[in-house]
Amino acid sequence: MDINQTNEALTSYVRPQSIPLAVRMCESAEELPERVRIPTRDLGFKIAVCQGISMARRYGWTLAIGRDDLTCPIPGIAMGFLPPKDGYLDGSFMESQGFGSREAQARTAQALPKLEYGKYKYILIGPLARATFEPHVLLVYGNPAQVLVMLGGRLHGEGGALNFTAAEGMSCIFGTVTPILTEECQVVLPGVGERINAMTTPDEMAFAIPASRVEHFVAGLAEGYRTGVLRYPTPTWLRFQPQHPPYLTKLLEYLSEGD
């Protein structure tokens, strides 16, 4: 992946309001870059993964979040930091906490995308333009029109159609773990927790691109731009004669009489 070329393409064709991110799952601390913030060590408190994503894209920080840095357990399970214990997988623990039926909670737990437990120690998140590591996923936030341009980049680059997963939460997982497991781009709808704890705004969505798709994605962005339609800001059609209220039409006729 050519990081500079990719960042330039995103800047030119998508124009995101926050910083495009590089994401990598790291098996050990040795993979972490020298300049990295680890929340418990450098901030003095634990955070949610969605919160770390917001810090990276709004502050320009590079963060490494591990098991001991987490306040939210669900991404911990999905990223393999915490064990998916039987009581979670069969729905009995969540039922005991008053979250719906055991059967429904079991289906939710089974549907959660999960990396191998114990394989990774950190999720590493930082600005794409300054990444000194090879990312597994690119994560870019934007409004729906910008996400549509990125979706067009994926489809113009490789064709086909895109299927993605959505829920009322777990958006940090769908933007990181899911594209790693599926090797497919994902449209990400920020969940309730992300909107509360990470201050993601009502107009924001995200698009995740696995590393294996980046080359075709960048070419697809350029191809979409060449169509003259798949652009941001979205082109508008202004070549028509407008209609006005009758009094304005009559006023124009009056002012034009005998001129």
Descriptive account of the structure:
With 259 residues, the chain is α+β, with helices and mostly antiparallel strands. It has two domains: 3-82 and 117-233, no CATH class; 83-116, no CATH class. 41% of the residues lie in helices and 12% in strands. It is built from 13 helices and six strands. A six-stranded antiparallel β-sheet has the order 2-3-1-4-6-5. It is elongated and about 85 Å long. The N and C termini lie far apart (66 Å). The model has no long low-confidence stretch (mean pLDDT 95).
Topology:
Elements: H1 3-13, E1 21-26, H2 39-43, H3 49-59, E2 63-66, H4 73-78, H5 86-89, H6 92-96, H7 102-111, E3 122-127, E4 137-142, H8 144-158, H9 171-174, H10 177-182, E5 186-188, H11 192-197, E6 205-210, H12 214-226, H13 246-256
Antiparallel strand pairs: 1-3, 1-4, 2-3, 4-6, 5-6
Helix pairs in contact: 1-12, 8-12
Radius of gyration: 23 Å
Give the neighbour order of strands across the main sheet: 2-3-1-4-6-5
Beta-strand portion reads 5-15%
In the residues, how many domains can be counted? 2
Low-confidence spans: none
Number of strands: 6
- What's the N-to-C terminus distance? 66 Å
> What structural class is derived from the secondary structure elements?
alpha+beta
